[in-house]
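Before we proceed, please read the two lines closing this message. Let me know whether the structure tokens fit the sequence:

…
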Amino acid sequence: MAGRRKSRRNFGRVRKLPSGRYQARYPGPDGALRPADRTFATTTDADRWLAKKRIEIEEGRWLDPAEGQTTVRDWGARWLAAVSPQLKHTTQASYRSLIGSCINPVLGDRELSSLRPITITEWVAQMRTRGLSASRIRQAYRVLSQIMASAVDNDMVAQTPCRGVRLPRMPQTEPHILTPIEASRVVRSADKPHDLLIALLAFAGLRIGEAFALRRVDIDVSSGLVLIDENLAEANGTLVFDTPKSHQKRLLRVAPSLAKRLGKYLETLPGGGDALLFTTPAGKPLRYNQWRKAYFDPAVSAAGLIDVTPHDLRASHGTWVADKYGVMTAAHRLGHSNASVTTRHYARPVAGRDDQVAEASDSWFNGHDDGHGARRGHDDDDDGSTGALVPV
């Protein structure tokens, strides 16, 4: 009677457990034997699993299971320490706050490899139940997405669980677009020298932190130029000077009358080239909430307006410039590296423009010059169009 044939297994080992199931073990690239992440009903199933694992190793797709056992808390801390030198101080503080208050309390002790899309969906739902705003939830999700993408890039896990997760929608809020006359009323209603600060928001499009950070050396009165190369922000109660948002420095030309008024103000400003243009009465850097309550909101009320924020002035400036001189010019003045940001968040339709377009289109449709640069149409076009595609 012939003896039982033993199957040849040239990769890994399989043994029967007391439970009757089979355990597979395989040598990693370092030669150390590692168990499979599950047991098998038959040796055939175990052999198939080993064959797939061998291909993963040979093709360089193998990940050490021990790496995936790292917790979200530990990997998040390592990731934040690695990326912090490239982040603005305010961004560092924001990431640290989101990790500490939103991510670690729920997911911090979970192993990276244990996270699934359903885990993240449940986490998002939990934040909504806690009453967190859509903005806060989306910010926390973006940070976790970066942490997990870094884990994938460093071969900790095969893929990120942050995929296919539905996030709460941001409420659609439109900025209050002022007319230039309304903005001028706010400027005239403000206490000096804060009227100049407000004028820089409305008529140069500065961010509030950029205006707070302006120094004497940044103003070239003779040329009417303002250099925007610094931003003052508050991070966890601490004021921090940093580069402008997206690190976009820019040189802006301001109205000659505004440049002249800035020049007269500089003549009275104490200190050297590094002296801040706008400070508290004690000479300290401005804080947004205090400045708005003490100077901006009273000026808005005195101008007969309501529901106007400092950011609305910047949005208004972007709208005026985009309407008259194009989105690219507005993007430059606002410090946007991508004009799509300008159109999405700042440039808004100007009241009455649609009526003007319709009136001009009547001339274009009939192939006439409306006196504003419309080209003569081609009556003999095969498709019946006028061919007068003229920018407004």
